Amino acid sequence: FPQRVEQLWIDLYERSYIELDDVVALQKWLEALIAMDYKFPELKPRIRNVALMGQFNYADFPNSMTQIMMWNQKMRERFQTTIAAAPFNETQLAYLEAHRI
Does 57 have pLDDT greater than 80? Predict the structure, then answer.
């Protein structure tokens, strides 16, 4: 929690919303809270389940499979589970399964 608050204030400073003295004052305040063993609240994720959908009109093997692979890779950076669903043919299904999609 303290690191996220500090980063927020640094970002505000870098965009000229606040002054450097404000950042320093916040850092000293956070240090004082830590020194007195203040228990910061836990940040809980707000989003659990998300459905994102993309459209692949023509499943021509080389191009569509590359796009689906790239989409899946980007989504896995943020989400634990991704699912690709479409009217894939057997060759495409085998390709996706081989790449654990």
Answer: no
